[in-house]
Design goal:
six-stranded antiparallel β-sheet, four-stranded antiparallel β-sheet, 4 helices, disordered C terminus
Length: 185
Amino acid sequence: MEVIKIVFFVLGVFFGEDSRIGAEKATVTVNSKEKEVVIVQEGVFALIKNKQDSIQVNSELEKIIARNWRKEIKSYPSKSCTFHTTEEGNLNATIILNYSSVKDLKDFALEFNEETNEFSLINIPNWNIETKQGELNGNYWKFKGNNEFTFIVTPFKNMPEQLISAKRNFRPILEAKTSKIKQDE
């Protein structure tokens, strides 16, 4: 059984263990020739139901601003996280990771089989994975190892009502924190 340490659509897990900051949609592109993974998270939001959640989101935000990457990613030769505001006022994040070895991708539940020259990603039905380059084979999406491939995950399509009411656009939260940092400097 795969242990998924980092999920593509949860922004906070790139900087810590648990997270209340996610994205409506994540488009993931893996380029094995360049050893690069590009993750574009669209509609970044925070789940805040109570004061404790607010404290946790604030703590995660401080790690994100400081680019305090989690231990599995710290050793990557190159990594970046940038934010973009859409015309609709939503926040998108682009995370670019350059890895040293395909073994690094195991933390994302992406496995590489040298014999078949294929990447595989476990199919979790609630992630609503879509791709034009991959093929679903049993419980795994298979991708050719020598080609760039892209897949999209939209895990919050069927979010329970109690979580929908806790959803907060992350843009104002980020802007409030970063403007406070600028004022303090």
